[in-house]
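Long-time lurker. I teach an intro course on protein structure, and each term I like to show students one example going from raw sequence to a predicted 3D structure in token notation. This year I'd like something fresh instead of my usual example. Would anyone be willing to generate the tokens for the chain below so I can use it in lecture? Attribution to the forum is fine with me.
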Amino acid sequence: ILVFNDITEEYQLRQAARNIQLQIEGLFNDMQALAGILKPDGSVIFINNTPLKLNGITFEDVAGKKLWGCPWFNKSPEAQKIIQACCNRAAAGEQITLDIEIDIYQEELLWIEFSVHPVLDEQGMVIQLLAEGHDISARKRTEAELKSSMQHIELYREQTPLATIGWNSDFQIDNWNAAAAKLFDYSQDQAIGSDASIIVPG
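-- Reply from a regular --
Happy to contribute to a lecture. Here you go:
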């Protein structure tokens, strides 16, 4: 007795799912960012071309590895711990976003905004994780330059022989240098938080 099962529909569904997966991967490969699909345990299913090219590697070099064990993170134990913790939290249903430095080709570092969030099935179970990383190095450089400029301004305020005073929108003093303390006979502790009217002769 021969028994035949019609698996045409099952085959078609699998092919449709595979076609959708290929379309998604194609879209990711066009992104100028890190984009990856992971198993819930953090193992790499797919990584797009951009981060692979940055490190001069191929997908075969990272396929099946835990994301935190891949070249972008494996030179920094601290970064590995952070990425592993993010993946664990995403596998538990959370969406995570943070800034982190990654290693790219020839020991160069790159700041990215890293995010990872769960992909759920119809029953609400986590079946995959979606990881993304966008280059924010320019923003980080701007922030560092601004911080450096503010530090220089603060140093000038403290060292200048001229009294420099600052106050907020409520006219409460929030900056008071040594020269101001000498001129107005109020210490910095006394002046900060006081009404700016204290500098006006009574």
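Some talking points for your students: Strands lie at 34-38, 44-47, 96-103, 109-120, 126-135, 165-167, 173-176. The two ends are 112 Å apart (CA to CA).
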